[in-house]
């Protein structure tokens, strides 16, 4: 896997490792881009520790591109840009940063190179909570047109008639503006339990 550094916001970068683009092999149908996040005290090398213990050979065999990110403040990745608000938590803020900055930047930079049609997040251990938060933000994000319709239910017929009068060019432009910054197809979670304290085994 090869090192990358990507600017995600003003004065902020995300670094990590990614599989090389195979020029000879065409992408498979509906190719996902796997974006992998490591847990606490690790780095992107968690997914590329040695030639034997690496996602690279599986990525090449399956023709599924794989990007492992150094989370904010790990290795050369910039820390979260702002202090944590009192009403929030570190996990919430990193989840928002993942959704608002990291994933859109990764998608814009690499999706076309890989021929990918969606992102699937692979999260391990401490990266699981922020992945769930990012996925929830992605799922609940509403387009401007959806917000307008929900705010004015009595004017629904007028809005439908107005939409019918839009030109094809206007419809395409509106679709671009309202599109989510990255297509999320799924999440894979590992190494994170839901039981606070495991029961003590009787001796």
Structural commentary:
The chain is an alpha/beta fold. The protein has a six-stranded mixed sheet, with helices on one face. The relative contact order is 0.16. It has helices at residues 56-62, 90-114, 127-140, 144-151, 156-164, 168-178; strands spanning 2-9, 12-18, 32-37, 66-70, 118-124, 184-190. Helix 2 packs across helix 3. It has six helices and six strands, in the order βββαβαβααααβ. The longest helix has 25 residues, at 90-114. Strand 1 and strand 2 form a beta hairpin.
* Strands in their spatial order, largest beta sheet: 1-2-4-3-5-6
Portion of residues in helices? 25-40%
Low-confidence parts lasting 5 or more residues at pLDDT below 50? 143-151
Rg, alpha carbons:
20 Å
Layout of strands and helices, then pairs:
Elements: E1 2-9, E2 12-18, E3 32-37, H1 56-62, E4 66-70, H2 90-114, E5 118-124, H3 127-140, H4 144-151, H5 156-164, H6 168-178, E6 184-190
Parallel strand pairs: 3-4, 3-5, 5-6
Antiparallel strand pairs: 1-2, 2-4
Helix pairs in contact: 2-3
Concise account of the structure shown:
The chain has 203 residues and is of the alpha/beta class. The protein is built from six helices and six strands, in the order E-E-E-H-E-H-E-H-H-H-H-E. Strands 1-2-4-3-5-6 form a six-stranded mixed beta sheet, covered by helices on one side.
What structural keywords apply?
203 residues, six-stranded mixed β-sheet, alpha/beta
């Amino acid at each position: 896997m090869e090192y990358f550094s990507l600017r995600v916001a003003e004065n902020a970068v995300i670094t990590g490792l990614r599989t090389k683009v195979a020029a000879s092999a065409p992408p498979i149908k509906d190719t996902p881009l796997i974006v992998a996040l490591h847990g606490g005290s690790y780095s992107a090398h968690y997914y590329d520790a040695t030639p034997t213990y690496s996602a690279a050979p599986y990525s090449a065999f399956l023709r599924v591109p794989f990007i492992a990110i150094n989370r904010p403040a790990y290795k050369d990745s910039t820390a979260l840009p702002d202090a944590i608000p009192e009403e929030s938590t570190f996990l919430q803020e990193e989840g928002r940063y993942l959704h608002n900055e990291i994933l859109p930047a990764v998608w814009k930079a690499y999706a076309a190179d890989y021929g990918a049609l969606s992102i699937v997040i692979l999260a391990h251990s401490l990266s699981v909570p922020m992945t769930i938060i990012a996925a929830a933000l992605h799922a609940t994000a509403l387009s401007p047109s959806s917000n307008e319709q929900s705010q004015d239910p009595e004017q629904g017929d007028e809005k439908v008639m107005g939409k019918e009068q839009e030109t094809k060019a206007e419809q395409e432009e509106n679709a671009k503006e309202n599109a989510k910054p990255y297509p999320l197809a799924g999440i894979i979670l590992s190494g994170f339990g839901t039981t606070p304290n495991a029961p003590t085994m009787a001796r």
